[in-house]
Design goal:
It is globular and about 30 Å long. The protein has three helices and no strands. With 79 residues, it is an all-alpha fold.
């Protein structure tokens, strides 16, 4: 699986949780917070994405990541 595929999974989870978003708004350089995701939304998006990828990473390790691209890169590194 490549990073683009991880991003597509994450986009799908984001739209499930934040249905007002469009896939065009979800870009690597944008943060989930900038797209209107609160802390619970971000927790759910990351948890659901990890479930789909069949990986488990402590959520505290995502705290320093600044944008969607960094989250995708981190998830990809831990596949």
């Amino acid at each position: 699986m490549n990073k683009d595929q991880v991003l597509e999974i994450m986009k799908s989870k984001m739209i499930d949780i934040l249905p007002d978003l469009t896939t065009e708004q979800i870009q690597r350089e944008v943060s989930m917070k900038d797209l209107g995701a609160n802390s619970i939304d971000r927790f759910d998006i990351i948890s659901d994405t990890m479930d789909e990828l069949n990986i488990k990473i402590p959520l505290l390790q995502f705290g320093s990541l600044k944008n969607i691209g960094e989250v995708v890169d981190f998830l990809h590194e831990n596949l």
